[in-house]
Amino acid sequence: MIDAIKQFFDTRIAGDEKETADTGQHRLQLATAALLIEMAQADNQRHSMEFQAIHDGIMEVFDLSPEETAEIIELADEEAHEATDHFEFTQLINQQFGYDDKCRVVELLWRVCLADAEMDRYEEQLVRKIAELLHVQHSEFIAAKLRVQRAYSAASHLADFDDYE
C-alpha cells in the first residue's frame, strides 16, 4: 500500500541507526503528504488552491526544497489513488511521532480543506476521522480549524486591502 513511500524513506532517509531531528521531520512529511492528497480529493474535485496549500504547507512546515516537495507529493498522489483507507498512513504517524506533530498534521489538513474557501461536508468528516485516528483531542482539532480560518481570513482581508491601493 504505502510501499513507494516506505521505499523512498528507506533509500533517501533511513540508514543510520542514529535518527536525527531532520529524519523524523522527513518521515512525518511523507506520511502527512499522503493524507493531504486524500484531503484534497475528499470532495471528488482537484482544486489547484488545495494542491498549492499542500505544496506550501509541506515546504513551510517541513523545510524541504521545491524538488523534494514535488517528488514527495508525486509519490503521495500515487499512493492516495491506491489507498483503501487511512489507517496505514495514520498508523505510521502514530508509531513515529509525538502529540504536537500529530496536531500539526491536523492543522495542515485544515489548511487544505479550507484553501478553496469552501468546506464540503466530506472534507470536514475526513479531517475529523483522521484527527480521531491520530488521537488528537477535540479541543486541538477545533483550535487548529480556528487558527487556519483566522489565517485565511487575515490573508483575504490583506488581499482586499491591496486591491484598494
UniProtKB/TrEMBL annotation:
SUPFAM superfamilies in UniProt: TerB-like
Instruction: State the name under which the record lists this protein.
Output: TerB family tellurite resistance protein
- A Pfam short name: TerB
Using the record's annotation, list all stretches that form the Co-chaperone DjlA N-terminal domain.
29-145
